[in-house]
Design brief:
The structure is a single chain. The chain has 456 residues and is an alpha+beta fold. Among the domains are: 137-363, Jelly Rolls, CATH 2.60.120; 370-456, no CATH class. The chain has ten helices and 17 strands. It has helices at residues 2-5, 27-37, 43-52, 57-65, 119-125, 137-150, 179-187, 204-228, 330-333, 389-394; strands at residues 79-80, 112-115, 128-131, 155-161, 164-176, 199-201, 246-253, 259-262, 275-281, 284-290, 313-318, 322-326, 334-338, 353-360, 381-384, 413-416, 433-435. The strands form three sheets. Strands 3, 4, 5, 6, 7, 9, 12 and 14 form an eight-stranded mixed β-sheet that branches. Strands 1-2-11-10-13-8 form a six-stranded mixed β-sheet. Strands 15-16-17 form a three-stranded antiparallel β-sheet, with no helix packed on it. Helix 2 (27-37) crosses helix 3 (43-52) and helix 3 (43-52) packs across helix 4. It starts with a helix and ends in a 21-residue tail after the last strand. The structure holds 2-oxoglutaric acid and fe (ii) ion. Residues 17-26 have a biased composition (Acidic residues). Residues 88-99 have a biased composition (Low complexity). It comes from Apiosordaria backusii. Residues 243-363 form the Fe2OG dioxygenase domain. GO terms for molecular function: dioxygenase activity.
Length: 456
Amino acid sequence: MDAFVTRKPKKRKTSDEPAEESPEESTDVKLAILASLHPDIEQEMLLDILLAHDGDVQATSETLKSPPPASRPVKKTTGVAGQTSLRSFTSDSSPSGEPSSKKPKILSKKGQTLYLYDPQDISEHTPCSIIHNFLPAQEANELLAELVEESKTFQKVSFKLFDNIVSSPHTSGFYVGSQKELQEQKNDYHYNGGRITDVRTLTPKLEAVRARVQETVNQAIQDRIRTHHGGQKPKYQPSEPWCANAAFVNCYNGPQESVGWHTDQLTYLGPHPTIASLSLGVTREFRLRRISSFLPSSPSTHPPTSDPNLQGQISLPLPHNSLLIMHSTTQEQWKHSVSPSRSLTPHPISGNIRINITYRHYRPQFHPRTTPKCHCGVPGVLRVVTNDTKTDTINNTKSGSGGRTKKENWGRYFYMCHAGNVPDPTKQKCGWFLWGDFDEDGNPRDPSGANQSKPG
Ligand SMILES: O=C(O)CCC(=O)C(=O)O
Ligand SMILES: [Fe+2]
């Protein structure tokens, strides 16, 4: 097993030509494909048989189709469920290949993980879309090499969680387009109630890629409105063009580095943002799970009612040079994470390192000068009410919930104090909160960034 997992990278074609990694090279992806075809077989067993067939997925699958020996371990209740390409197993797709307007079936079950790799499956069953081999191979490889070097000076982000100071189990760096934006970030913007001191300007390679990402994302947004929303932009989704004016670059150095379940902060992006995430280097699993307040329910009501245990996780293996687009509703209705891995197939350039660039649109309407401020004088953080709101946000505040725990408020936006989230034990939250009020395009309805309705 080790020989496969730590096998040497393929030889380069010439000494100065970087090696390309095709999606087929990743063990994660091969396992995802096999797991989808043979969902009753343990992952460990799949890996062993794959190794015995020298990494050949088809030969492995043929072997597995033969009657199982009595001793073959069969999976019980947990593990991988579903298909990598679901199309051949469901009749949901229209003949054109576009998603049907039928209510999506719940495909993943409690305690189980559905692995999806095929772009059409991902588009149909998650709030995301994916483009494999996004950049010309050489550009992707050069960008990876540059960012691996940059990442040597990245830091872990520290924040406060229920009075404990925790730091993220990976490092990151933050990039903006100009010196002016850099100064604004340092002087005006707050994150987790504090400031970011290490802000950088986009490197020439990040800048070149940003233009491509921007064009692709704007096209993808329009395609999604057509294929998933009957041509009608969802409420609160901005209608202005998406502009990639900021980039968080994450570095995961080794299988244990990860990021836990979270949603990305809406404060400066506004409601229903689009975020584009370019993966470089070793393949890692990006996981998604729907926040239970937003599980599809029958009959469909708003807010939807649900059994919080109905749905499991969806795992998307993200190979080198893949662009994942998190569309409108991803941040409001789903959580995402990058889970620790048991083993990795080293990438020829970065070894066990994965670099991820999330390009974001910091909208001028959400500049911190217009963000409502809490009693501590700090711009509030923009959140959505979900069934998690009570434990997630209201602990440690002095005031009551102000209605934020009520089911009828699921899906509503609010601002709350974030000053208590800085890693300083003397700082407490002031308990302030304000309902957010946005127009059809997700723009704040008044110049202060939210209406002045009293908590209730
Ligand atoms: O590394 C990834 O794919 C996800 C990163 C992420 O979730 C974030 O930066 O907010
Ligand atoms: Fe995120």
